[in-house]
Amino acid sequence: MQTHHDTARTQAPAANEAPLDPHLWAVVMAGGSGTRFWPASRRARPKQFLRVVGERSLLQGTVDRLAGLVPPERVLIIGAAEHVGQVHAQLPEVPRANVLGEPCPRGTLPCAAWAAAEIARRDPDATLALLPADHVIAPREAFLEALARAAAAARAEPVPVVFGIRPTHPATGFGWIEMGPAPERRADNGAARDLVRFVEKPDLRRATEFLAAGNFVWNGGVFVWHLDTIARLLRENAPAHYAAFDGRTPSAAEFAALPNQSIDVGIMEHVAEARVVEAHFTWSDVGSWNALPEVLESDSAGNCVAGGATLVAVDATGCVVHGPAGSVTALIGVEGLVIARDGDALLVARIDRAQDVRRVVEELERRAPGQL
Q: What is the pLDDT of residue 35?
């Protein structure tokens, strides 16, 4: 994984600018299983391939969002080997050589190592942005502006840069980031703030304190770094992953033998310095069915529908419905339910129990794996 690092760093753009960077690459991590979106999300077609908002899938929306800053030839998609065909079908504009299929799930750390090695062969002065494939973000212009700032900060200093999402409520289902004060002068011209610490999903009391403090943001799960930086951090903190991709592509057996780790655990917990770019856009990781009201329009009774289905609601409030185009779901006198239909499977749950869909998946794993 040989890289070089030019000594003259690109300075950060002004806050209202998003200049084209010919060395900026995007790596879309598309290997998630999306079990909390069962039955719409299945092994053969996980959540990132679903239409949740609008006419495009979550994966397509992620790549669409990059237009104007990162062209398709500098977009890498990394996901499960069995889904490579679906990626090609949904994203014909992305070169086939840019779609990499993992033989088995091993977390986001091997994804980062493989992407860094692949891009190093093509562009040794690259800056990489690693993005989840299944987030909903708007408006696109604000996302591009934040990405440009993060890329400038990553080129200005040899440290990783993460997105911090300005919180709107005391969320207990997200990780949080504590930021340092805004610097007066630094190599990145103030494009980013110091990352003080990560805080895993807090309880409501602590989340409320974080929201009131003003210097805490949600962890957006986006990582930006210069190629030299990620190569160094892999060598220092994940030598097995670095070696596995150094100048070659590991066999399926070698890939399966890699430790199953996330970027957060494998790298970010060990870094001495990192930066945060505050992102001022609406954001959702759409982690479960009860997140849909955050990203979809609701009717006057608070019901929302996804997947192309038609909803007829009579005295029904606060429900989430998902179904295929051409299907009709009728609700009468109910409230706070999730009703999701896909093929031969139907889910009905209280919306405040939406996170427990994973328990259904665990039970099906034991009793009827063909339904997964």
A: 87
Closest CA to 49 of 73, 66, 70, 28: 28
pLDDT mean over 42-64? 92
Residues 146, 212: Cα–Cα separation, whole Å: 23
Residue 198 Cα to chain centre, angstroms: 17
Sort 2 into a burial class: Cβ within 10 Å, 0-12 / 13-18 / 19+.
exposed
Sorted by where each starts, the structural domains of the chain and their CATH numbers stand as: 24-287 (3.90.550.10), 290-371 (no CATH)
Q: Which of 176, 158, 159 is nearest to 167 (CA)?
A: 176
Distances from the Cα of 30 to the Cα of 86, 176, 313, 328, angstroms: 11, 23, 35, 30
Total Cβ atoms within 10 A of residue 14 = 12
Containing H/E element for 235? helix 227-237
In the structure, what pLDDT confidence band is assigned to residue 286 with cuts at 50, 70 and 90?
confident
Nearest Cα neighbor of 31 from 92, 124, 115, 95 is 115
The overall pTM is greater than 0.70: yes
In whole angstroms, give the CA distance from residue 134 to residue 108: 14
For the segment 299-316, the average pLDDT, to the nearest whole number, is 95
The amino acid sitting at 114 is W
Instruction: Work out whether strand 75-80 and strand 99-102 pair parallel, antiparallel, or are unpaired.
Output: parallel
